[in-house]
Amino acid sequence: MKIIKQNILLVFGTRPEVIKMAPVINELLKYPERFNTKVCVSGQHRQMIDPLLELFGISVDFDLAIMQKNQNLEYITTRVLTEVGIIIEREKIDWVLVQGDTTTAMAAALAAFYKKTRIGHIEAGLRTWDTQHPYPEEVNRRIIDSMSDLYFAHTSAAKKNLLAEGVKSETIEVTGNTVIDALLESAKKKFSFDNTPLAFLEKEKRKIILMTAHRRENIGEPMVHICRAVRELATRYSKKIVFIYPVHLNPNIRKTVHSLLWGLENVILTEPMEYLTLVHLIKKSYIVLTDSGGLQEEAPTFGKPVLVLRETTERPEGVKAGCVKVIGTDAKVIVKAVEDLLKKGAQYTRMAKAKNPYGNGMASKKIVARLIQE
Length: 374
Prior knowledge:
374 residues; 13 strands; 44% helix; Rossmann fold; alpha/beta
């Protein structure tokens, strides 16, 4: 039987997307007789994706280079929609693969839908059921799932969400999350903090709290409350803990963070980290404090309790498993949640030993195996 080679276009534009798409790209490239694999980056997060492309050895075929100062969602949507549509038509694309819930992913999927090209959604089925949290991601992923032809769900709970919305069971594959594939592979690489701005960590005796906060819905007052909580904890436990906070490049975030946290000896504000550095920092941390989606999946792999600085999470599996706790952005609540983990050994141990529900590093293989069947 003659094998029909399929033209596959993977479209992404943000740092988390690169991390989660890289294992899929590398797996697809193992089958050149079946797939003509093309990579398109929108450049939605220009400075944050280029080092990752190099780390994972990803060659880019189409770079939309859309990033501009103070870009808004309308601009990202229209540029990606138009440019990806042109690529799909010119390159005779059979499948467009998108990951997650970014505006790049949503617009690329819409472009494929308009061109009547099949869509594969990696990390399909995540839901908070609140269109404002996270914003605009909750609506983006619902839009993508309304148009997709194949759904790669990271857990059985995500599959149930899709089934409840009328998606046919035979179009859904439960694969685990590709972020675990990338994480486990990166953790194998030799690494030392000695040649990084965090060289002091090699001798640091205090407990490390890794912190990230950058979501749109937390910009403004929520970010102020988060920073005030960190300031109080850092001051109260200056001899016991050190916060490491890679600060997002968004100037609205940086202004708040630097105004409230700059100058504290045990709060280290850094530029966004290379992925390999972040992976090993997770391993070295005692607690992870974050509003990120990816870290909710990554940190439990290394037995690190995660406190989520959001009102809701689209990843309830971690909460159910006991390795993740959603605490919101109220300063008093944040302080208490961190203190509980510092003081209550049994509570810390329960979270640290909870099993990570997000996969075992085989997600990319499962995704490509299903595509081979199509």
